[in-house]
Every structure is written in C-alpha cells, then in structure tokens.
Amino acid sequence: MNTTTDLFARLGEPARMSQLARYGLFHPGLKARMEAIAAHSAHQLNAPISLVSMVLDSAQFLLGAHGVTGWIDEALGTPAEWALCTHTVLAGRPYCLIDATTDAVHADNPLLDMIGVRSYAGVPLIDDSGHVLGAHCIIDVAPRTFTEDDLTVLHHGADQAMEILSAYRTN
Amino acid sequence: MTDIVTSRRPFPVPADEDARLAALAAYDIVDGAPEPDLQLIAQLAADVCGTARAVVNITAAQYQHQVAAVGMAPQVCDRGDSMCTISILEPAAVVLADASTDPRFADNPHVDGTMDSIRLYAASQLRVGDGQVIGTLCVFDTEVRELTAVQRAGLDRLARMVVDVLELRRHSGLLTEALRDREQTLAELEATHQELLRSNTALQQFAGQVSHDLKNPLTGVLGFISSLAEVPAVADDETATWMLQRVMSSSTRMWRMIEDVLAHAAVSGAPDFVPVALSDITGQVLEDLHDAITAADARIDVDELPAVIGDATQLRVLLQNLIGNAVKYRHPQRRSTIRISSALTGGIQSISVADNGRGIPPADRAKVTELFTRVHTDVEGTGIGLATCQRIIAAHHGTLSFRDTPGGGTTVTVTLPPAPTTASASPCGTAAHSSISPAADATEPAGLRRPSMADARDAVHRSHGDAAAPIWAKLLRTSQLTGHETSDDALPQLLRAMTALDPVSRLCAHAIGIRLAAHTNTATTTRSAA
C-alpha cells in the first residue's frame, strides 16, 4: 500500500486541498452545467464518455459526467488510484492513453476492465492560483490516437469549466 | 457595449404582453450575468442546421437582446426591426427557405438589404413553463436553403434546452439567495450563541465565587455555634439551647443550599463523554448516601445496569439526586423501598428509579424540574436537585419523565441516546453501501481495501498540514468517538463530523465516501462473478 500512501500524500498536499476547499463543489447548480460541458466535448470528439472532475486526496470527484453509468454515476467518483485523471493532475499537462491493453502503467488498474476503457485524453483544470485541481477528459472504448485538435476541444471545455467554477468560489 | 439601432418601426405585440414581460423578468437574463451554456447551445444549433449564424434572442419590452450569438457579435436591436418579434406570435417554429418571399418579412431591414440580407431563417420559440414565449433560438443564412426534418426537430429540441438552462439558472439563483439568507441567519445565531456562552460562563463564575465567599464565613459560624452549645451558660439555659438549635439547623440548610448551587453551576460545563458502567456509579452513590439510607431504614434493590456513553461525574450527580430524593420523600406510613432498573427499547437506553414514597401530583410534574421549585415544603430541600438533573439530561440529549409507581410512589425514568457505534448514515449519499460491512475475508477487488478509521485519520493529517493534530482531536470529540477511534463501524459517524467541521475535512470525507462506494460495489461484483 506504499504506492497509494505516496499518491495520497501528493494529491492531499495541504495547499492544494485548501484551494479545492475554496470552491462550492457541492453547489446544486454546478452539476448540470458541468454535464453540459462533458456532453459537448463527448459529441465534438465522438467519444462515449467525458468527465469534468476534481481529484481529491484519495478519490476522483465527478462534477459532471457524460456517458457514465452504474455505481460510478451514483457515487460520482472513483478511487484516486484507479482514476486516469489522477495522471493528468499529477502531470499538470495533457495526458493521453492510446491503448490500455498495451500500456504497462495501467496493467493493474481494475477500473479499465470494469468500464471497458481502451483510450483516454485529459487536460488539467488549473485555476489562477496555479494549483491543478482536476481534469476534463474523454474516454473511448477503442484504441485511439489523439490529435492537437482533440486537445483543443478539451482545452476549450476546461476553460469553460474553470470559468463556471470561478463563480462558485467562496473566497 | 453594443450599439442600439433605433428605428421605432411599429411591431405587433401579443395580447398578454404584460404577463409575457412579467414571465421574462423572472429569469433575469437580459441584464444578469452571461450564461455560457446558452453559447454552447447556440453553437450546437449552428452545427445542427449547418448555418453560419445562430443566436438566442430574448424579446424585451422595446428591444430584442441577443444573449448568445455564434458567427457574429451579440446585438441589441429595436423590436420594430426584429424578425423574431413576429415569430414569437406564431404557435410553432417559423422555418423559411427564403424569407424574402414571405410577406411578413419581405420588407424587414434584416431581409431587404438595409441591415442584412437574410434568406434562410428558422426560429424556434422559447416557451417557458406557463406557455409564455420569451424569445427564440434562431438560425439564419444569406443563402436560400431548406432545412431537413431532422434539422427542424433538432432546432426545436435545442430551444427546449435553452428554456431548461434558463429554468436551472433561475432556480439556482433562488437557491443561492435562500442559502445566503440561511448563512446570515446562522451567523446571527452563532453570534447569539457565543454571547450566551460568554454570559453563561460569567454567571457561572459569579455563582461559584459568591458561593465560595458565602461558604467560608458560614464554616466559621457553624464552628462557633458548636462551641457555643458547649458553653455552660448556654447549655444550662433551655431557651438559649432551643434557639441555638434553630440557628444550627438554619445554618446547616444554608450550607446545603450553597453546596447545591455550586454543584448546579459545575454541571454547566460541556460533558466529557466516555463509556460509564452505571452499576459502578450506583454503588458509589449508595455508599455516599449510606447514612441517609440507614436512617430512613430504606430497602434498595439494584438490577443489573448497563454501561452507557456519558459524563461519569454528571451521571453520578444525576443518580445521587434521584436516589437521594427517593429516600428523602419517603411515605411516612410505609417502609421505603426503592428499585433501580434499566431497559433497552428500540436502541434507547432507559434507567428508572422507582420508589413507594409520597409521589408527585401529576399537576406538579411539569414544574418540579424548575429551579427552586418545591412540592413537599415540609421536607428539607433546596429545589435545585431536579433542575440540576434536567440540565445533565439535556447535556446528554436524553429525557427525564415522572410517572406513578403502581401501588403508590414515584418512578423517575431517564433515557439516554444509544451509544454512538450504532450510527449508520454517511454524508456522501452512500449510506446503504457503507453500512454493509463485508467481512475482512470477503473477496477484495484488486488494490482497494475497505476504508477504515485509519484512512480517515491519515486523510485529515496529510491534508491539514500543521493544523492536523487539533483538528483530529476535535473530530473525535464532536463525533463522540474519543476512546473509540479504532472501531471502523464508527466511520460513518466520523465522516459526518468531518463533513460538518471544515471545507478541507469535508472534501476528505467525500473522497472516503466515494472509496466506500467503490469498495462495496466492486467487491460485490467480484464475488458474484467468482
């Protein structure tokens, strides 16, 4: 469990957590607006799944999702060590997975089998404090090579998400 | 700023224009903050219909406002110049391959080349809840072209989405307002609470100080009275002896009263919740009351008593008062028998002290717990004891009730809330999952342990930095888990406390709630697949 301890320590860094805590992430008006962004990116990029999420210290919290079903949709999140967006947040820049079945980094991730993930592209959600709070991504069930144009769509969605979120900042 | 082009051409208005404008005002969209979602929908409308331009028009009293626009800058124009001012009167979407051939629009400045040369024009009405039309979702082009049935249906659906977004925005505005009011009320309550706490503490200190100041001279008085009784001149004088006895008993009563006031003031402190064995406490109380019990020749039966979560000192004061009262207010004609018993009903622990004494008339039961209330004035007392009991019970979130003992006498019953380990709800809406606790040997999904109290502690420590230790201590205190922090059954209760404590703890609690849901759901999947 050393790996998750290290991971949670990196994600749970006090300054980043305080920054996350400044936003009204549980505001009831937020979900529909984030879902609209996810739906838009999913349609634009022809992907079955798209997420706008915050990565907390030990779990990914979906602010808005498109194409997600089952318990992940009910819980609105997944453990941080399973979430692909964790990689995007830790990298602080776009992160892509072309084919999960051939990528050794993700060989042990049970979530990929559970929801049939084959490819992923995510861009970080960064606010004006410089902290990486979360990610906006699309997920596909087929292997996929992503282009700069794909990332531009995601960046556009990420900008809109952060603009909406800025209205929910408390201080 | 957008220029307003005013031509003041006449324009048709709906019959119920006033009602329409009132409906529009509720959305606060014209002068309110811009709505990014509307821009998304306008973009979709342009994509779906394949037009260069798409706008969301809001038709106000004199002007038409474009609150979202694709392929052009949003504009405000006079209603007389607007095409959609005419379209909002229509029962269904207006779709024209060539607007210049339609008599309603042929001489409109947006069509005839004055301002624009629109040909393809399609406007779907924004119809809000009560049927009023507040504007349109409109796509247009300068080329003549038909829209397909799919495109028309898509435009109508997107128009309904615009209304949904506006509805949502209106509701979230109302909610924000309500929350702001609530926060203000809470802040005022908190200020009042702090002020009460402060004045309570001051009063308590005052009562304590005064009582001590009274006790010291009184100790001297009682000492001198004892000595005086032995002085031959007094001891030999019958009247002097009788008077001195009166002084003695009055002073003793005063002493007892001061003791009670001191005890009452001491109870005001916050209870320190720990597991308390009631049988031990009862034993100590009976020892303290030994002289009074012997003098009254009372028979005391004590059933087996449970352990409860509570403040040991306060619970002892409580039992001392209840048993003491039962002995004190015994019936003059029958031997005092007192039974102390307990019951567990629906998770609520109750303790009863039943006596066969004088009883409390039903009419007096409501007031016996008020300070300085005395029902039986012929028996020595201060009227403080039951008031103190009431405060202790309130601090333990319990209840205190009186009823007749069958055959005569009073039964006092105290209820205490269940011990905290039976708490079950979690703050994350995953209560149903978290209360199912798969045994340690259940099939665990790869790499995910069931979240434990240790995980919560780690989360608080890593995410709060230097402030973590006092925050964790406070969490254990507020969730009444001090001494139980290793019991993983108590995790939901701790998560509740985390949700209420500070925003960072709330995020950590939320993350653990997600992990609980993931654990429960994936463990079940793995099991049923196996």
TrEMBL record, chain A:
**Which InterPro entries does the entry link to?**
GAF (IPR003018), GAF-like_dom_sf (IPR029016)
Pfam families in alphabetical order = GAF (PF01590)
Superkingdom of the organism of origin: Bacteria
Recorded hits in Gene3D superfamilies, A to Z, give:
3.30.450.40
| Stretches assigned to coiled coil | none
In what residue span(s) does the GAF domain sit? 29-171
In Swiss-Prot or TrEMBL terms, this protein is called GAF domain-containing protein
Species per Swiss-Prot/TrEMBL record = Actinoplanes sandaracinus
TrEMBL record, chain B:
Q: Where in the cell is it found?
A: Cell membrane
Entry EC number(s): 2.7.13.3
What Pfam families does the record tag this protein with?
A: GAF (PF01590), HATPase_c (PF02518), HisKA (PF00512)
User: Which intervals carry biased composition (Low complexity)?
Assistant: 411-432
Instruction: Name the segments for region: Disordered.
Output: 403-463
What are this entry's molecular-function GO terms? kinase activity
Catalytic activity, per the record?
A: ATP + protein L-histidine = ADP + protein N-phospho-L-histidine
What the entry lists under PROSITE patterns is as follows:
HIS_KIN
Concerning Gene3D superfamilies, the annotation shows: 1.10.287.130, 3.30.450.40, Histidine kinase-like ATPase, C-terminal domain (3.30.565.10)
Q: Does the keyword Transmembrane apply?
A: no
Provide this UniProt record's keywords sorted from A to Z. Answer: Kinase, Phosphoprotein, Transferase, Two-component regulatory system
Record's InterPro entries?
BphY/WalK/GraS-like, GAF, GAF-like_dom_sf, HATPase_C_sf, HATPase_dom, His_kinase_dom, HisK_dim/P_dom, HisK_dim/P_sf
Query: Taking every annotated instance into account, which residue ranges of this chain make up the domain Histidine kinase?
Result: 209-420
Checking PANTHER family in the record gives:
BACTERIOPHYTOCHROME (PTHR42878:SF15), TWO-COMPONENT HISTIDINE KINASE (PTHR42878)
Q: What is this protein called?
A: Sensor-like histidine kinase SenX3
What species is this protein from?
Actinoplanes sandaracinus
